[in-house]
Design brief:
The chain is α/β, with parallel strands linked by helices and about 210 residues long. The protein is built from six helices and 14 strands. The protein binds uracil (URA).
């Protein structure tokens, strides 16, 4: 099974992404644009959330009206850049739970080492949306999703802003059951693992740390 890749190519998203890519875009503007795009990505990734009917009273009569079914969605940020996507998604899903996963690559063993992991308990009936702006080599996304799967979530999706073809391929090889949502797929990675043409280091641009 190869998971589906959805490119959310709405013109408004594409316009905002172009503004984010520009070198001269300020940290403040970059954050604001990421928040706006994250709201739109949240809208798209939750398109298939199940609904159930509840009886409500309008001012005129009662009706069977749709409401979201089941437990609250869990957004999981891959540290650190994934944090930049959470605020926008919470605008659309204000009662979502939020988890954080921090991993680094051991320079000797090249294995992903967990330095932070905090998710809500009992994920069996919950839908998880794992977020990281850049799917570059795919190593951290693959390692994070592998770790999250150990908690046996009800379902998993992965959302990024930009992906490299290499990252998508690696991710799909390792997690063919996890659908990927991205605003764009760029050309390729450079020798340092950066996406080209890309937008630079997403973490540095979100937090102003360059
Ligand atoms: N991470 C980033 O922040 N940018 C890239 O281009 C690749 C990985």
């Amino acid at each position: 099974m190869t998971a589906q890749v959805t490119i959310v190519d709405h013109p408004v998203i594409q316009h905002k992404l172009t503004l984010m890519r520009r070198r001269k875009t300020s940290t403040q503007k970059f954050r604001a644009l990421l928040k706006e795009i994250s709201m739109l990505l949240a809208y798209e990734v939750t398109r298939d959330l199940p609904l159930t009917l509840r009886t409500i009273e309008t001012p005129l009569q009662s009706m069977e009206a749709p409401v979201l079914e089941g437990k609250k969605v869990v957004l999981v940020a891959i540290l650190r850049a994934g944090i930049g996507i959470i605020d926008g998604m919470l605008e659309v899903l204000p009662s979502a739970r939020v988890g954080h996963v921090g991993l680094y690559r051991d320079p000797e063993t090249l294995q992903a080492v967990e330095y932070f992991f905090k998710l809500p308990g009992n994920l069996r009936d919950r839908q998880l949306i794992v977020v990281d702006p850049m799917l570059a080599t795919g190593h951290s996304a693959v390692a994070a999703v592998t770790r999250i799967k150990a908690e046996q979530p009800g379902s998993l999706k992965f959302v990024c802003l930009l992906a490299a073809p290499e990252g998508i391929e690696h991710f799909q090889e390792c997690h063919p059951d996890v659908p990927v949502f991205t605003a764009a797929v760029d050309e390729h990675l450079n020798d340092h693992g950066y996406i080209l043409p890309g937008l630079g280091d997403a973490g540095d641009r979100i937090f102003g740390t360059k």
